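Standup notes, structure subgroup. Blocker cleared on the nickel (II) ion input:
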Amino acid sequence: MAYRKILQVGDPILRQISKPVEKIDDEIISLLDDMKETVTKAEGAGLAAVQIGVLKRVFVISIEDEGYFEFINPKIIKQAGVQKGKEGCLSVEHKVGVVERPNKVVVKAFDREGNGFKFTAYGFTARAICHEYDHLDGILYTDKAVSIEDAQ
Ligand code: NI
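Run returned:
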């Protein structure tokens, strides 16, 4: 595993559309390991592969006390409700913004063994999934925020 540099806003790679993973091979496994090491060190709630410069539809999300969950080729298949709250991004340092997100999402994805799964998330976790999902399409929360301010 290795810590990978997190790209910062202004880097054009962050605006590109990530491509689906076609085969879960050693390269994808080590990408996932590197992402988990990187997001753990950075103390982030989540990280998308594009943030370390890899244009693959992969992200990891911190789920409360259970550590980081991996999502390969995620698709949000349902969303419901609305919540407004603050979020930040490891690619937009020292800022937080208020963003409106669904309060519930259902996401389908694959794990590193290639097994498909369905995951239902509420509240903060739903917010994190939407945030990371947007990264896969080159969208940053700052595009959607109703206000942005300096963190702390
Ligand atoms: Ni982010």
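Discussed briefly. The CA atoms of residues 26 and 95 lie 35 Å apart.
Next: hand off to the docking folks.
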